[in-house]
């Protein structure tokens, strides 16, 4: 069973890797309800993060993943999918 969940720190690292956007994990955590575009992440960048996670965990994320508006919404959806797919 996969007990892994994507953390705020991992999301910040993925934002850097997939979209070239550097975000302080603490700032991301404190502003988790803020829209992704306030961090400079657009839908294409989010799509890159979704692809990274799908490759990492070997499962497809829901189509809604790339439409999430905030880090909190995204992490909740991704982590519930990982738990369900485990």
From TrEMBL:
The keyword Phosphoprotein applies. PROSITE patterns: CARRIER (PS50075), PHOSPHOPANTETHEINE (PS00012). Residues 5-86 form the Carrier domain. It holds the Pfam family PP-binding. It comes from the Bacteria. Keywords: Phosphopantetheine, Phosphoprotein. This is Acyl carrier protein. The keyword Thylakoid does not apply. It comes from Streptomyces pratens. InterPro entries: ACP-like_sf, PP-bd_ACP, Ppantetheine_attach_site.
């Amino acid at each position: 069973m996969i007990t892994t969940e994507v953390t705020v720190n991992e999301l910040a690292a993925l934002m850097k890797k997939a979209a070239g956007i550097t975000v302080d994990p603490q700032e991301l955590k404190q502003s988790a309800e803020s829209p992704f575009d306030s961090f400079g992440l657009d839908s294409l960048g989010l799509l890159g993060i979704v692809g990274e996670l799908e490759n990492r965990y070997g499962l497809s994320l829901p189509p809604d993943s790339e439409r999430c508006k905030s880090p909190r919404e995204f992490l909740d959806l991704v982590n519930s999918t990982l738990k369900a797919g485990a």
